[in-house]
From TrEMBL:
Enzyme Commission number(s) of this protein: 2.7.1.49, 2.7.4.7
CDD domains: HMPP_kinase
BP term (GO), one: thiamine biosynthetic process
Name of the protein in its database record: Hydroxymethylpyrimidine/phosphomethylpyrimidine kinase
NCBIfam families documented for this protein: HMP-P_kinase (TIGR00097)
Keyword NADP recorded: no
Family label: Belongs to the ThiD family.
Catalytic activity: 4-amino-5-hydroxymethyl-2-methylpyrimidine + ATP = 4-amino-2-methyl-5-(phosphooxymethyl)pyrimidine + ADP + H(+); 4-amino-2-methyl-5-(phosphooxymethyl)pyrimidine + ATP = 4-amino-2-methyl-5-(diphosphooxymethyl)pyrimidine + ADP
Natural source organism: Halalkalibacter oceani
Length: 269
């Protein structure tokens, strides 16, 4: 039996709801073989980030070479990259190994406010990684940082930001509207020609830790299985909506989403 292969390059979340842990659970649920490159360890739980321990460039490079020189991958996803140096290294290695189906989730700040990307690394992200991405998945604050504008508050402002993001080189922009002040959870998809709105009802739960990671990992898993980008994004939206609908009240703070919900619901249908 063969399985499509998906690689996550991200930070470890000891709490299991975001980062590498969310990505690998998502890969598994979507029938792909997951591999990982850990860029930083975080001591994290539902109450917040209690410590960030970046890995050395040597450690990140050795993991990338170990996975890509032997196992290879059909798609990759980046999450927390922490520094400009790690971004430069990851971009170079993805080019060297000709990884074409790349999803970049430009993780900057955790829900609790902890910084997961150094301020000066944003330029490296823009120059080195975004141009080689097939799909990028910024949330509204991340889009504002990348484009250098105020945070979009309306659908019209989201559309403007999506067009500017596309000019930076990624083939598909998925601008996530989870942070919109009210109304449904609308994500905008823009491929340089057409704008699509993916809309779901806003689910009333505080347990949304790791939504962004899980969504981007689901896109990568579907791309690994050779889904077309728009199709991959639509399946990922269904996956994250199920995961949020059945989110888990674990711990005393913001609990994680339920990665098993999508498959379970499909089994019951
Ligand atoms: N309350 C909600 N109800 C329904 N969908 C939601 C809700 N919150 C977020 N989403 C959806 O979840 C996905 C992730 O979006 P979000 O804007 O939360 O990402 P993010 O801020 O990057 O996540 P993270 O906080 O993990 O970094 C998007 O498809 C978004 O529309
Ligand atoms: C290692 C890691 N990567 C990404 C996130 C973002 O997820 P969230 O904004 O839901 O905390 C996180 N908290 N930790």
């Amino acid at each position: 039996m063969t399985l499509a292969k998906a690689l996550t390059i991200a930070g470890s979340d000891s709490g299991g709801g975001a980062g590498i842990q969310a990505d690998l659970k998502t890969f598994q649920e979507l029938d792909t073989f997951g591999t990982s490159v850990i860029t930083a360890l975080t001591a994290q739980n539902t109450l917040g980030v209690h410590g960030v321990f970046p890995q050395t460039l040597e450690a990140v490079e050795a993991q990338l070479d170990a996975v890509l020189s032997d196992i290879g991958t059909d798609a990759a996803k980046t999450g927390m990259l922490f520094s400009a140096e790690i971004i430069t290294l990851v971009a170079r290695k993805l080019r060297q190994y000709e990884v074409k189906r790349l999803v970049v989730d430009p993780v900057m700040i955790a829900k609790g406010g902890a910084s997961l990307l150094q301020e000066e690394a944003v330029q490296a992200l823009i120059k080195e990684l975004l141009p080689q991405a097939m799909v990028i998945t910024p949330n509204l604050p991340e889009a504002a940082k990348i484009v250098g504008c105020e945070e979009p508050q309306t659908l019209a402002e989201m559309k403007e930001a999506a067009v500017k993001l596309h000019q930076l080189g990624p083939a598909y922009i998925v601008l996530k509207g989870g942070h919109l002040p009210s109304g449904p959870a609308i994500d905008l998809v823009y491929d340089g020609h057409e704008l699509h709105e993916l809309e779901t009802e806003r689910i009333a739960t505080k347990h949304t830790h790791g939504t962004g990671c899980t969504f981007a990992a689901a896109i990568a898993a579907e791309l690994a299985k050779e889904a077309a980008p728009l199709e991959a994004i639509q399946t990922a939206k269904a996956f994250i909506t199920a995961a949020i609908t059945h989110s888990l009240a674990i711990g005393g703070g913001i609990g994680p989403t339920n990665h098993a919900a999508y498959r379970r619901l499909a089994g019951e249908a």
